[in-house]
Design brief:
9 strands; two-stranded antiparallel ribbon; alpha/beta; TIM Barrel; 15% strand; 41% helix; 7-stranded parallel beta sheet
Amino acid sequence: MSKWARMNRLFATDGKCFDVAMDHGFFNERSFLTGIEDMERAIGVIVKANPDAVQLSPGQAPLLQKIPGKSKPALVLRTDIANVYGRTLPRHLFSQLTPNPVEQALGLDAACVVVNLLELPDQPELYHQCVDNVCQLKTACDRYGMPLMVEPLVMQANSTNGGYMVDGDIDKILPLVRQAAELGADIIKADPCDHVDDYHLVVEAAGGRPVLPRGGGRASDEEILTRTYGLLQQGASGIVYGRNVIQHPHPARMTQAFMALIHDGANVSKALGILQGE
């Protein structure tokens, strides 16, 4: 199968994609399990809400693919596991690829694989390992026609708020996004920046690759919907959100609200109405 055939499974006919990230249990952090304690139930709820894709680890992806029918979301397969998300960093940091990740993706009928390009303060060895991971994956992805999503993530110091917190400095985000493109990413999952009106610069840095901003930590309904609307207006090709969906009291309605923003051209007021069941 060609890379473009898989890209067409991932992106709708309007060229947009909403990927619901549910791979958080891969990273050995208790707080990441909120909302996905029962993965089979959680995946079932999201699948019924019908996003374009669901992002999962190799161990949980079969829960998606065993659901019968032709219309379930595409699978985005997580290929690396890292230990960088706690408030206190361990003595040895790693971001390690799973064994034969592209072959695993083929066996699971994935439409895409995803890998981190992490930039943490004062952690050059980790960054180097991520570059090596991307290079290894790129070769295998090209061999098998598998789209490669790279996450160039600029993170705050873990001691500030724990791991996985967005550093929204546009001057840090832009060169890492460009590096992801230079390394051969087909899709870029990037940080949002501090000022949403600057996000067209991130899209420009990606050099024509679709850019899917990540959601980061939980935000209020109005804040996350307003931010998403603004990012789409700046040229984002969709979103990859996890905690703002799976940790929401109404994950299915939140999924539908985001889908309306992405695919139907809804404004924030309309999306809030969907979320509130109107």
